[in-house]
Amino acid sequence: MTPGGLARTTGSDGTYEFLGLEAQQYQVQAQKAGYTTNTKSVNVLAGQATSGDIHLTPEKKDAEITITPSSLNFGTTQEEMSVTVTNNGNTETEWTLELGSNSWLSANPKAGRIGSNKTQSIVFSVNRDKLGETKSVVVNLSAFGNSFPISVSCSPKGEKKTEMSVSPTTLDFGDTAQEQTLEIKNTGEVNLDWKIKGITSDCITVSESEGTVAPAGKKVVQVKLDRSKMTGDLNTSFIVSDGTKEEPVTLKAVKAKATLSISPKKLDFGEELAELVLNIGNTGNAELSWSITNVSDECLSVSTTSGKVPAQGSSEVTVKLNRSIMPQTLNATITVSDGVQEEKVAVTAVKGSITDGIVIPEGMYVYYKFDDDFNDATENAIHGFGSNSPTFVEGVAAGSKAVKFNRTNNSSFVVAKPIIDSRDMTISFWGKDFGDGNIFYMVSSHQNGPMFTLSMKEGALKFIVTLYNNGYQYAKSGTFMHPTLTDGKWHHVALTSDFNKTTYATITTNLYVDGQLVDVVTEDANPFSEAESSGNSYGSGTKFIMGGSIKLSNSNTLNGTNMAVDNFRVYDTRRLSAAEIKSIYDAKQ
């Protein structure tokens, strides 16, 4: 009993008594040989007798028998071999050994009693005079209601026998192999009957599971691994047996897996770049499925958001930066995942000047790159729009775009401001697929008539400024002389024009083609009055239109053409020098 450490032995009726105890709770434990010990809590109250009945149950009797070794091979020479019987149970048991009809085999002793936690030896003997051939039998030891098998093999003296060898004894499939070979040889003097047993993994199969090998012969077995059934790395084994000898074969394999690799880990667009490439690699040995799960800023876009990469392969994703909507300083992330692993790519950029990377930005009023939009690339943001669905095609520079007009659709590009009515200006653009008809014009603030028209007639460019000359003198007005522009190639065209500066009361316009000055034309205009109603004044406009048809008068309409235009820019305060125009041409801007 605790606390107190008191002990009592019960009477024959099982009663016990502790006197003079203090009032508290006690733990009373009852023990008896052959019974399971039991404990009970008893609360003792002051001045009262307290009972504490404890029930004991008999221990379960069990004999746990083990036999080592459980297999005996006498070969052709051994005459005696022994096994050890161990009783790991809690009770003594009787045992008997049944040898069956195997007269060539004897054992001593063949029966007995074995106590708890005790061992006994049984000596087996063979009489080869009673053995005409190799025998492999199983005898049974019976104890405590159970049967325990012992395998016994023996061969006659001098008998011809098989001799099995298996190689290799370890098959390593690594992380890619799906098939290995196993060689079973018979170096003995009689036929070898072999069998493969103990395959426990359903991802392993063999071409043959049993067979016969002649003396000095061999058999090659294909061992196959179905990697689709692997749930993880493989470490298993099976047995090759000839009935007497058992050779274990170990099989190992690493489950193929994909490994996500991203480079670079940082994309820095700096102040000018608008496009960078992200490499998504797979350094593993299985196909990789990836997806871009997050792009943290709307100014970034990616060419594709998911894909597959073969083992040891890579894919490219183009990341584009829309500088028109980016913050002054960009610190963003792109997250790439393979479903298990995530990689984050840091993306940085600085807004910089809007004209960074543009040659001759000084004095530039508008600049339309037509890179999939009609926006003005300068800080003036005088954006235009497409009418009747002009399209975008490959531009003059690699990776750039241009606007393409369609005569049938009468498509056009419109700017709702008069961007070319300056008295001292430069107009610069690239074009191809020119044909006779309208190129661009401005709508006059007087009765919405056409002015500042650039067109082509019989393959030659014609630039006419005033309302009067466009309406009444178009046919009589001269054209520029210049190299061929209708050869289907890109050509750079620049016009530098002034009114009343080079020559009094005269509009003087210089034409540059592909960076070279090729011609000059003049046009008279009224220098005394800017009254729009005169029609012969320089005038001003309300909007600019490129492409489509134009009605010059009731009797003269110029059709639209199928031309393409790229990098249209206007300088509204100065005429560029020949060297500056050559710089624009060389830069393909």
TrEMBL record:
Pfam families: BACON_2, CarboxypepD_reg, Laminin_G_3. Residues 64-139, 163-249, 260-343 form the BACON domain. GO terms for molecular function: hydrolase activity, hydrolyzing O-glycosyl compounds. GO terms for biological process: carbohydrate metabolic process. InterPro entries: BACON, CarboxyPept-like_regulatory, ConA-like_dom_sf, Ig-like_fold. PANTHER family: CILIA- AND FLAGELLA-ASSOCIATED PROTEIN 47 (PTHR45912). This is BACON domain-containing protein.
